[in-house]
Every structure is written in C-alpha cells, then in structure tokens.
Amino acid sequence: MLYFLPAYLRGAIAALLLVLNTLFWFSLLLPCALVKLLPIPRLQQVLTLIMIRIAETWIRGNSAWMRLSGRIQWDTAGLEPLRYGGWYLVTSNHQSWVDILVLQHALNGRMPMLKFFLKQELIWVPIIGLCWWALDFPFMKRYTKAYLEKHPEKAGQDLVTTRKACEKFKTTPVAVFNFLEGTRFEQSKHDSQQSPYRYLLRPKSGGIAFVLDAMGEQLQALVDITLHYPDGAPKFWDLLSGRVRKVVLRCQLREIPSEFLGRDYQQDAAFRQQFQGWVSQLWQEKDAQLAALHKDYPPGS
Question: Looking at the domain assignment, is residue 137 inside a domain?
C-alpha cells in the first residue's frame, strides 16, 4: 500500500510500526509474566496460553507492516501437514536476521509458536529479552573448551539447562527451533570452515540431540525448512523498506528415528557418530534442494 513512497520513508514507517507493535503487546505481556511467578501450576498454565496468544498477535502485527511497506511474493510449499496442536522440532538454514520474521510470518497459526534456544546474554536485550523470558524461551550459557578444561564440573551443563527448559514444554504444544548452522551463512565463514556444502555451513548437531534426549517421544516430527531469497540474503533494513521482493520456503516433515530418543549424545560416542551422520545426510539433501532452488529461482525471477 505504501509502495509509492521512497524506500527510506517506507522503512522509517515500518520501523515505527514495529516499535509501537512491540511496546503495545509488551504492556499486556509483562503483567501476565509477573502474575505467572506465583507458584500455582494451573494459573501458570493458563497464563502461558494467554501470553502465547499475545505473542502470536504481535507476529500478525509484524506481518501487517510487512504487507504495508512491501510487496513480497511468498512461494511456500509443504506447510499443509502442520498442526497447531502438535509438538515439533524445527530447523532451517540461516542466511539473514530476516529469516526469523519470515519463519514467524509463514508458520504463525499453522503450528505452535517457535521457541528458540538463545544465548544467555540476550536476556538483557531491552523489552525483547523480557518477552523471551516471559514466554519460556530457553537461555543457554555456552562454555569454551578452554573454560571446560579448567572447570570440568561445568561439562554437561547445557544438557541440564535443556532438560529444565523442555520440562516447561510438556503441558503446552511447542515447536522447538534450532538453526543447525548456529550462525548466518557468509562466504567468509563457509571458506574458513572448509564446508563440504555449497550453500550451507557445517551443521552443529549437539543442540537438537539434547532436545531429543530431554523431550523423548513427545516430539512428533522434525520440521525441516529450506529458505531461499532469489535476490540474495536481505538485510533487516531491506525488509523494513519493502525491498524484499520474493521469499521461497520449502517445508518437509521428517520422521525422527526412534533409536535416537533418550540417548546420551555427550557420553555415547557410537550414538554421537550415528546422529552426526543422520544430520549430515539431512544437510546434503538440503544443499541439493538449495542448488535446485537457485536454478529454478535465479536473481530477478
């Protein structure tokens, strides 16, 4: 609707709408989060559902300003089997910060709200950090190998944190999300890793292995998503200013092998090798799919 305006003006309006949308729904979310601190399980469960609805409405607000500032062509496939009442493990390739808003827009209402594993430091991000905390997003503290050598008692702490986080997901349908690459794709990162994939960084399988260990048979499927931007990975300002022309999204539900459930990724070397092989096969297929998408949707298509 605002496409007749200059890009910088569209971006400024969209940014303002994003801020107002966030502040408004945060003002409703925060009181619920404070009341949820009361140790009353039934009340906590009800407030969790209310806060999820608030967050989903915030996502719809973001979708509205995206439609207002731009004219994105959405080319999606494979979303039909998703159920709002399911329990899923979700992953995707990662090219841009835009990915998160794209995924939220495409999946909102089709499946439970995505719950990301976040670095512990992100809890201090103004407003958004409090929202993540209130919505039970799991915060992880990562330790370097050098630190663990000096403090071996911290080994396995990630698994403990994952188990505690996943305990909160057992009463409410959830989609636990993890970017397997761990960071956005950049050619310099790809080269330094000597990645064997053309369009992907090397996957890090430990995170989803911990989730499978913690949640076991509760997860119904792996939702495998592939994102492609024909005009190249956009920056966040490109999305705000309406310069993202087309988004291609492919979704596939994959069965989680039963032999992977409840296994110890850290201590069981044979399982770790088997699981990494499974993830590598997924990544080979995703790389081939991206190659096909690059061919079918070249720049300007």
Answer: yes
Q: Which amino acid is at 285?
A: E
Segment 219-265, tens digit of pLDDT: 999 999 999 999 999 999 999 999 999 999 999 999 999 999 878 88
Residue 63 maps to a domain: no
Say which CATH number the domain at 196 has. Answer: 3.40.1130
- Report helix, strand or coil for 169: coil
Could you tell me whether strands 175-178 and 88-92 are parallel, antiparallel, or unpaired per DSSP bridges? parallel
Number of domains forming the structure of the chain? 1
Instruction: Confirm whether 199 is domain-assigned.
Output: yes
Q: Is residue 24 part of a domain?
A: no
Provide the whole-model pTM. 0.92
Contact 253, 222 (CB under 8 A): yes
Residues comprising the chain, all counted: 301
SS3 247: strand
Write the pLDDT tens digit of every residue in 62-87: 999 999 999 999 999 999 999 999 99
* CB proximity list for 15: less than 8 A, separation 6 or greater: 240
Nearest to 119 by CA among 101, 143, 97: 143
**pLDDT tens digits for range 22-58:** 999 999 999 999 999 999 999 999 999 999 999 999 9
Phi, psi of 33, deg, nearest 5:
-65, -40
- DSSP SS3 for 193: helix
For residue 277, the enclosing domain spans 74-296
